[in-house]
Amino acid sequence: MQEELSYPVKAAQIKDQSQIFTVIADAAQRAALAVRFGLPAISRLEGRFTLQHERSGTITAALAMHASVTQICVVTLELFEATIQDVAALRFVPEAAMRQPLGDDTLEEDLTPDALDSPDEIPYANDTIDLGAVLAEQLALTLDPYPRKPAAALPDTATDDNANPFAALAARFGKPGGV
Questions:
Q1: Which of 15, 156, 158, 178 has its CA 20 to 30 A from that of 115?
Q2: Which pairing describes strands 58-72 and 41-55: parallel, antiparallel, or unpaired?
Q3: What is the 3-state secondary structure (H, E, C) of the chain?
Q4: Residue 144's closest CA among 88, 81, 90?
Q5: Confidence band for 30, pLDDT divided at 50, 70 and 90
Q6: CB contact set of 80 (below 8 Å; sequence gap of 6+)
């Protein structure tokens, strides 16, 4: 699959000293990502990766992402600009090291609360880490699935706390106060 945003880095070039890579999406890349994510527009997408070799080909990364996107408010259906700033801890692991033999029952160990707080592990192959693809994925993960324009409010009829969905049914059967 061809990535809309690609910034390949050779894992072998990451040594003991941390290295910084900045990925900035150009206009065409932002437009393609906007289509992929169902957004009206992405006006800025930038990520700063700090990479450091950990061991056995594993690379740790700290990502600071900045983005400006146009979203559609789920309440008013109006377009609005949203600014996204996110930091993430990641680990790039050689694909071969991530494969577990069949029948290995370590899934229960993997789903501990500590494991959920650990950095996301991203496999890479052929000694190449695609920082652009990772930046696009992190943007997708941080997007609000139900974007709401600041100060957007539901109409009073939609927020009636006294409304009971069974009130009509209760009235039909003559039960007072609902079901």
A1: 15
A2: antiparallel
A3: CCCCCCCEEEHHHCCCCCEEEEEECCHHHHHHHHHHHCCCEEEEEEEEEEEEEEECCEEEEEEEEEEEEEEECCCCCCEEEEEEEEEEEEEEEEHHHHCCCCCCCCHHHHCCHHHHHCCEEEEEECCEEEHHHHHHHHHHHHCCCCCCCCCCCCCHHHHCCCCCCCHHHHHHCCCCCCC
A4: 81
A5: very high
A6: 70, 71, 73, 147, 149, 150
**How far lies 44's CA from each of 132, 139, 159, in Å?**
14, 11, 35
pLDDT at site 123: 86
pLDDT for 128-148, tens place per residue?
Answer: 899 999 999 999 999 999 998
Structure token digits, residue 43: 């006006």
The model's pTM is: 0.75
The residue among 22, 24, 38, 31 whose CA lies nearest residue 4 is: 31
